[in-house]
Amino acid sequence: MSASADVRAVLSEKSLVQRLSSGTRGTVRALLRNKAGFLGFLGVMFFIILTTLGPLVIPYEGDPRLDRLRPGARSLFAPPSVEHPLGLDVKGRDVLSHIVHGGGPLILTALEAGILTTIVAVALGAAAGLLGGFIDQIISAASNFILTIPQFPLLLVLATIVTFDNRLGMALLLAVLNWPTLMRAVRAQVMSLKSRDYVEAAFALDLGLWHITTREVLPNMISYIVVNMIFTIRSAMYFIIALMFLGLVPLTEPDWGMMIFIGKQQGSLSNPEAAWMLLAPVLAIALFQLSLVLFTRSLEEVFNPRLRQGV
Amino acid sequence: MSTAQRAPLVELKHVDRFFRKGNATLKVLQDINLNVYPNEILCLVGESGCGKTTTGKIIAGLLNHSGGEVNVQGRPLASYSDRREKAHLRRTFQIVHQDPFASLNPSHTIAKILSFPLLRHKMVKNRTELAARLLELLELVDLTPPQDILNKYPHQLSGGQRQRVSIARALTVQPKLIVADEAVSMVDVSIRIGILKMLLRLKEELDIAIVFITHDLALAKYFAWQGRIAVMYLGRIVEIGRTPDVIGNPAHPYTRALLAAVPEADPDVTRAKEEMPLRSEDIPGLLNIPHGCAFHPRCPFFVPGLCDAEVPKLAVARGFNQEAACAPLELGLPLTTYAG
Amino acid sequence: MRKLIRSYTFRTVVQGLITIWAVMTFTFFLIRLMPGNPAQIKIDEYVDRYGMSEDQARQQVATLFNYDPDQPVFEQYVDYLSDLVRFDLGRSLTSTETPVAEQILRFLPWTLFSVGLALLVAFSLGVLVGLAMAYWRGGLLDNVMTVFASVIYAIPDYIIALLLIMVAGVQLKLIPVGELYGGSTQGIEPGFTVEYILDLLKHAFLPVFTYVLATIGGWMLTMKSSTISTLGEDYITVARARGLPERRLLTAYVGRNAMLPLMTRLAISIGFVVGGSAIIETLFLYPGLGRNLVLAIGLRDYTTMQGIFLVIAISVVVSNILADLLYGWLDPRVRLGGDKGTE
């Protein structure tokens, strides 16, 4: 019978494998399609490699290097040279070594904060949107409440109460402050998806709330969620650096934010010689944030099945 | 026809449905009395906003009613308290939506869309059975060759193909009733007849009742010739009966107006048609439903003091086989054009 | 009366009042959880700076303060609330007994002026450029401006400020940064004189320029995408087919309708004008409310913090209500309310 042959064809692993491989190829193609997005991807990769593999190559200089004081010079600052591509800082230390070693903790904290925020926001947004009623009212009221308090001053106050001896504490605090915006967006999306015909059909087929949430509603929000997670990571980084900037978190070196704070403290903001010590972290932060934003464009293409598979 | 002898699948008794909108209450459905029998075809016809979709969703169990009584398979809906019983009940009634672009989840393949209900309700024992059932379902809805369809995403199919997948999905749970909500209105005209014929075939082969919702009387006439038609206007049923009776000898002035507006392919027939000018083109909103018969401000046969006094009841008038809600007809008055 | 209670506007206002009260209460207790209290910080300062003994400093501070750190927090709260209903925000704990209301009134104009001006400039420029970008889509202007907007949008405001200071100020010496710190130059008599106004503008330049750069990209991109979707609408095609002059089409039809979604965002932004930007004001030593709040937090000046948090919360709530009403008023579909059913 040909029918059983058809059954075997459907069951054959080959077609499954084929689909998987075309999936990976599709991902690569989607990554390459958007030029700005690809540039962002390269930028993000660059910083990840710089801060993870870089420390293995470039040793960290933590102690002052008074021996590097050049005869006749008034300070230890030095412009870029062959030995020190990014110059020397106020204590005569290699700026490049601080850039390489000082990005990791910052990026990791921001990443943790971003992931935590996204989890909280998606869970609460989905609950509010799907369940509605009383739960929705509570969650919405809480988000309105947090959005009404000026975020940065609130963070300043909280930063003095909670001491950040670990990264996770900081990430958690940022998540508490940052979830409302994304939650609102997720809630609106869920509400609109909830009234889609295919969700109604899933209710009619009695597929269950868990299935409807995880298989019918969330997959259509993945690109949206991932893009917004990137934006939360970005805003977490903004707040962490801002806190360091005002000297409100325990000062630990090496850290990009710390480099700016120390530079500012030493009055080097107006000192032309100090430019390299300050410009290096400032540009690193600016470029990393820019890369993140550009990267989201590629992510949109990767996660959107309609953009990805040609008709 | 012996359908009417079987006990009804669904009985709506004096069913109301209200929606709150800001401070106002929209009376979307009022006093709906309707039975759906096994293996019958029932057409709900009316203009947009008349409540036909809401009625369909209440029948399918997707929407709660605000007032009145809904009996399912001879028992009040409220008496189904057991969760499993309720779940099973829900699966017995399925819906096919109007928009084939919105009714399938864009992020799953057709195989997945059809597998979810089969696996969830353990309707297949293993992968071999699943694959066989998938192929069988696609063949049922004339999607051939089926293995080409299975690995595709909804956006890779045409509108007609999607609508067939939608029907196949409804069939996965072996329903007794399918509500087809404008199921072919967004499909190309050339493909409509094929889908309608397939629905009629499925009804016979699988012993399914079909509630067919449409605004197009011509379509209703074609599809439900063996069944019944209920004409709705502003949240009420104004005429209900066997299709040949309603189409061939319409009783309610609104049904007559609808029929007069159906264009015919033959221009001579169209020209020879009796014209029926309405007194007003405006359809009143649900917020200010006219007193008495809701159709009276537009009705050419308006009788002052009678039509605008009380809501007319459905009744069989002399010279008709179907029920209509029209006060002058019920009293046996001749319908004469209102001059005022 | 019943109608009033059930009306949407009334409910919104009551909700807003409840939010303001909740924020007020929350911040009241939160700031008292901060380590240290204003008296202790002052005592430490005297000990450090003037070499007083602990006891001496304590006596000195006690004469300055009417704050009793030993009073139960809940009693303080009740006192504060009873003052508040008489519109009394209390007195600052640090800056020699100035009433908080007076203090807020002194710092608020700087913030309103700088942030308000920046919002005005960024919004109008952004909307104009965004409209042009969408209209000549794919052209040189669009390409250059899209890159510019995306880049500028992605960079944090304080990084922009630092780059301004370091590159334009210190390295290239384009801007005399040193002269521009603060709110106005000392010695220039405040008044309605050309000299004073020019001086104000000069000092506001750095923060305003930073705010504009930090926000204009967002306005441009939003306006562009909103305009593009408006250009696709049927009524635009019809107006064009009618032979309407392109210029009028762009201003009266496209621009007007494309701006609708931006207006609500503008109203919400207005709410944040009052708070200003703590970090930018700190960086440029600009005497606004934001910087004052940071200073108050450092000094644990409870009443000042309370007052500023309250003012900001009120402005955010009010602007949200305004945005809500504005949306209904601008969009006739919402204003008139469709009376069609939910078919």
Superfamily at the CATH H level of chain A? Answer: MetI-like
Helical content class of chain A: over 70%
Element-level helix/strand string of chain B: EEEHEEHEHHHHEHEHEEHHHEEH
Instruction: Flag low-confidence runs of chain A.
Output: 13-21
Number of strands of chain B: 12
Strand content of chain B: 15-25%
Q: How much helical structure, as a percent, in the residues of chain B?
A: 25-40%
State the domain count of chain B.
2
Description:
The complex is a heterotrimer of chains A (311), B (340) and C (343). Chain A has 311 residues and is mainly alpha-helical. Chain A is built from 15 helices and no strands. Chain A is 73% helix and 0% strand. Chain B folds into two domains: 3-104 and 173-239, P-loop containing nucleotide triphosphate hydrolases (Rossmann fold, 3-Layer(aba) Sandwich); 249-330, no CATH class. Helix content of chain B is 33%, strand content 21%. In chain B, helix 7 links the parallel strand 7 and strand 8. Chain B is globular, with a radius of gyration of 21 Å. Chain B starts with 9 loop residues before the first strand and ends in a 10-residue tail after the last helix. Chain C has 343 residues and is mainly alpha-helical. Chain C has a domain at 105-302 and 309-328: MetI-like fold (Orthogonal Bundle), CATH 1.10.3720. Chain A binds chain C through residues 36, 144-145, 147-150, 152-154, 156-158, 160-161, 234, 238, 241-242, 245-246, 260, 269-272, 275, 278-279, 282, 285-286, 289-290, 292-294, and chain C through 19-20, 22-23, 26-27, 30-31, 33-35, 150-151, 153-156, 158-159, 162-163, 165-167, 169-171, 177-178, 272, 275, 277-279, 282, 290, 293-294, 297, 305, 308-309, 312-313, 316-317.
Keywords, please?
heterotrimer; B: 340 residues; alpha/beta; Rossmann fold; 2 domains; 4-stranded antiparallel β-sheet; 12 helices; 33% helix; C: 343 residues; mainly alpha; disordered C terminus
Present the secondary structure layout.
The complex is a heterotrimer of chains A (311), B (340) and C (343).
Chain A: H1 2-11, H2 13-33, H3 35-52, H4 54-57, H5 95-102, H6 104-131, H7 133-148, H8 151-161, H9 167-194, H10 197-204, H11 209-217, H12 222-245, H13 256-265, H14 275-303, H15 305-308
Chain B: E1 10-21, E2 24-36, E3 41-45, H1 52-60, E4 67-72, E5 75-76, H2 83-92, E6 93-96, H3 110-120, H4 127-140, H5 146-150, H6 159-171, E7 177-181, H7 189-206, E8 209-214, H8 217-223, E9 228-233, E10 236-242, H9 243-248, H10 253-261, H11 267-272, E11 315-316, E12 323-324, H12 327-330
Parallel strand pairs in B: 3-8, 3-9, 6-7, 7-8
Antiparallel strand pairs in B: 1-2, 1-4, 4-5, 9-10, 10-12, 11-12
Chain C: H1 2-6, H2 8-31, H3 38-50, H4 54-64, H5 73-84, H6 100-135, H7 140-154, H8 157-171, H9 177-180, H10 194-231, H11 234-241, H12 246-273, H13 278-283, H14 289-299, H15 302-330, H16 332-336
Helix pairs in contact in C: 2-15, 3-4, 6-7, 6-10, 6-12, 6-15, 7-10, 8-10, 10-12, 12-15, 14-15
